[in-house]
Amino acid sequence: MQCQTLKPGVECLFMKKTGCSYSGGKCSTIVESCEGCVKIVEFETGKYCSNFPNPAQKWQKGTCPMSSHVKKTTQATEQKINPLKASKRAAGKK
After folding, report:
1. pTM for this entry
2. Burial of 39 by CB count in 10 Å (0-12 exposed, 13-18 middle, 19+ buried)?
3. Maximum distance among all Cα pairs of the chain, rounded to whole angstroms
């Protein structure tokens, strides 16, 4: 159904015939960490995330999984080589 409370005209999974079924009866506005994300939608009532009804909850354990403005870094860990296997490989190439 379409949201009738804060984001009029937007399809919402939490909107029921009796009103908004999300915790507290409405979506939460974005937090400071969300600034710069492409998933932010601005309405008369404020700025909201198009993916999550409570964006602050997604930032509690680190970065938001859907954030588009945060570069995801991967740590390049050196692979440990078993010395016994390495010597066998070297012996087999002769």
Report:
1. 0.64
2. middle
3. 77
